[in-house]
């Protein structure tokens, strides 16, 4: 089993194409099904600890995988039962069904078992389960000690995180060959439990991958505060938000943080504070400029944003500044020589780019291309997209991040990494998102944004 981090993500169409390429190289549908089924069975055998297993099989190739699983587990000595929606429809599924010599129960009347394997429907589903299958699946998952989905929980769309009706939450999803978008996109991801990838002998490649631990080296022996990166934070109407971003930047590895704001708390004293002035933005030592946390949306805020857009350094645009980006300012973003990273949540994204259609991945890609900027489309799932470039998906974050100020902390963390590597904005955005999530993981629950900013020290030190 392979964890998700750093792995390619394939849509349903891409997965079909990848399987077709494997068949062109000599595999068959039956051989791929056999690999998949035996790989799932090996995991179930290890986790079942001798307990009885119930395998639910659908009419397609996912059901065929299930029949292979059942036969392999029975051959290994486990007590296995199979229930199905009906007869298999595809040739490979029919062949797999022929390899199962036990009885096949009716799904509507099936009794639960301690270990449940859901092989009803996997990649490519486009509709809800019928009421009989949905009720039986829910009942069996609720009664199981361990519930395992093959590829995707039945009732989940592959590409956009959509749920087709009521879908129970599984303990484990064993995805075949590659991760799929709905393993990370909400709300479907919340039904997958732990997700692990099983090798079925295909070559999965994609420009869309899961977020991985970044490779941020520690400072070298010749490092000094400016070589580590100077971050400037533009404050405004709510100075506390800018101060959070400033502390986060320091604790994420920046060597020097300049907070350009009036008023507000003074700690930590390592932050250099000065009143805002347009001239301060022209300091050539600034590696990254962050604007938006607590900026406000009045005339003064607009003026500060215009000055920031004209500054020569890389720029992180967050919060209030995103709401001030009209068509004129978006044109300025596109025309900048220095990199721009934008960090909208869903409300800010919709206000700036429109509600749109397609998956969160599709929308983030389109926004990155339109703005000519790296987009961090944040939320319970986060999509990071570069213009005409790669995409990374971060899975479910700590739900305690749903508190005021955590977005300001993220902006500061991204700014710190960007200041140290201004030529690589996409990688900086990915690293900042990872640091933010790791800090939240370390402190656990019931935290506030101030705690999160402080926890970035340990998160950065872990690399």
From TrEMBL:
* Keyword tags: ATP-binding, Isomerase, Lyase, Metal-binding, Multifunctional enzyme, NAD, NADP, Nucleotide-binding, Potassium
Q: In this protein, which residues make up the domain named YjeF N-terminal? A: 15-208
PROSITE patterns from the UniProt entry: YJEF_C_2, YJEF_C_3, YJEF_N
What cofactors are annotated for this protein? Mg(2+); K(+)
Q: Which domain of life is it from?
A: Bacteria
Checking Pfam families in the record gives: Carb_kinase, YjeF_N
Q: Where does K(+) bind?
A: 62, 118, 154
Task: Give residue ranges for domain YjeF C-terminal.
Answer: 208-463
- Say yes or no: keyword NADP present: yes
Which InterPro entries does the entry mention?
Carbohydrate_kinase_pred_CS (IPR017953), CARKD (IPR000631), Nnr (IPR030677), Ribokinase-like (IPR029056), YjeF_N_dom (IPR004443), YjeF_N_dom_sf (IPR036652)
Could you confirm whether the keyword Nucleotide-binding appears in this record? Answer: yes
**Cofactor annotation comment:** Binds 1 potassium ion per subunit.
Catalytic activity of the protein? (6S)-NADPHX + ADP = AMP + phosphate + NADPH + H(+); (6R)-NADHX = (6S)-NADHX; (6R)-NADPHX = (6S)-NADPHX; (6S)-NADHX + ADP = AMP + phosphate + NADH + H(+)
Q: Which residues bind (6S)-NADPHX?
A: 61-65, 122-128, 151, 241, 294, 345, 408
Q: Note the Gene3D superfamilies from the entry.
A: 3.40.1190.20, YjeF N-terminal domain
EC number(s) in its UniProt entry?
A: 4.2.1.136, 5.1.99.6
Positions of AMP binding: 378-382, 407
Family, per entry: Belongs to the NnrE/AIBP family. In the C-terminal section; belongs to the NnrD/CARKD family.
Q: What does this protein do?
A: Catalyzes the epimerization of the S- and R-forms of NAD(P)HX, a damaged form of NAD(P)H that is a result of enzymatic or heat-dependent hydration. This is a prerequisite for the S-specific NAD(P)H-hydrate dehydratase to allow the repair of both epimers of NAD(P)HX. Catalyzes the dehydration of the S-form of NAD(P)HX at the expense of ADP, which is converted to AMP. Together with NAD(P)HX epimerase, which catalyzes the epimerization of the S- and R-forms, the enzyme allows the repair of both epimers of NAD(P)HX, a damaged form of NAD(P)H that is a result of enzymatic or heat-dependent hydration.
Task: Please describe the quaternary structure of this protein.
Answer: Homotetramer.
Protein name stated in the entry: Bifunctional NAD(P)H-hydrate repair enzyme
Species for this entry:
Sphingomonas oligophenolica
Organismal lineage: Bacteria, Pseudomonadati, Pseudomonadota, Alphaproteobacteria, Sphingomonadales
């Amino acid at each position: 089993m392979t964890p998700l981090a750093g792995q390619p993500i394939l849509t349903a169409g891409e997965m079909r194409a990848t399987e077709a390429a494997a068949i062109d190289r000599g595999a068959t549908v039956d051989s791929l099904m056999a690999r998949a089924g035996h790989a799932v069975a090996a995991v179930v055998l290890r986790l079942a600890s001798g307990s009885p297993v119930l395998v639910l099989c659908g009419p397609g190739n996912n059901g065929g995988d299930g029949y292979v699983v059942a036969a392999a587990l029975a051959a290994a000595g486990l007590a296995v039962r199979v229930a199905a929606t009906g007869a298999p429809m595809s040739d490979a599924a029919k062949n797999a069904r022929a390899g199962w010599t036990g009885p096949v129960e009716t799904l509507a009347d099936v009794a639960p078992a301690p270990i449940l394997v859901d092989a009803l429907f996997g990649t490519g589903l486009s509709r809800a389960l019928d009421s009989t299958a949905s009720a039986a699946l829910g009942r069996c998952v609720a009664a199981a000690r361990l519930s395992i989905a093959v590829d995707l929980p039945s009732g989940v769309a592959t590409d956009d995180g959509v749920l087709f009706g009521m879908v129970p939450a599984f303990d484990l999803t064993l995805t075949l060959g590659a991760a799929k978008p709905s393993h990370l996109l909400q709300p479907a991801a919340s039904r997958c439990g732990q997700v692990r990838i099983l090798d079925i002998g295909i070559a999965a490649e994609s420009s869309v991958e899961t977020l991985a631990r970044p490779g941020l080296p520690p400072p070298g022996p010749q490092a000094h505060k400016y070589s580590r990166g100077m971050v400037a934070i533009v404050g405004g109407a709510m100075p506390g938000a800018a101060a959070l971003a400033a502390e986060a930047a320091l604790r994420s590895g920046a060597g020097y943080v300049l907070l350009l704001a009036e008023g507000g708390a003074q700690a930590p004293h390592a932050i250099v504070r000065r009143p805002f002035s347009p001239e301060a933005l022209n300091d050539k030592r600034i590696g990254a400029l962050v604007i938006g946390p607590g900026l406000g949306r009045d005339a003064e805020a607009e003026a500060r944003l215009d000055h920031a857009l004209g500054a020569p350094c890389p720029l992180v645009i967050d919060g209030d500044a995103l709401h001030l980006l009209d068509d004129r300012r978006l044109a300025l973003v596109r025309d900048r020589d220095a990199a721009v990273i934008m960090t909208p949540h869903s409300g800010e994204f919709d206000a700036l780019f429109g509600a749109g259609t397609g998956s969160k991945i599709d929308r983030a890609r389109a926004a990155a291309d339109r703005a000519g900027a790296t987009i961090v489309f944040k939320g319970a799932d986060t999509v990071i997209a570069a213009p005409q470039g790669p995409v990374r998906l971060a899975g479910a974050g700590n739900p305690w991040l749903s508190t005021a100020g955590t977005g300001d902390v993220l902006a500061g963390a991204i700014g710190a990494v960007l200041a140290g590597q201004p030529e690589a904005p996409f990688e900086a955005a990915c690293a900042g998102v990872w640091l933010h999530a790791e800090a939240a993981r370390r402190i656990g629950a019931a935290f506030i944004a101030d705690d999160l900013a402080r926890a970035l020290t340990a998160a950065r030190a872990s690399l």
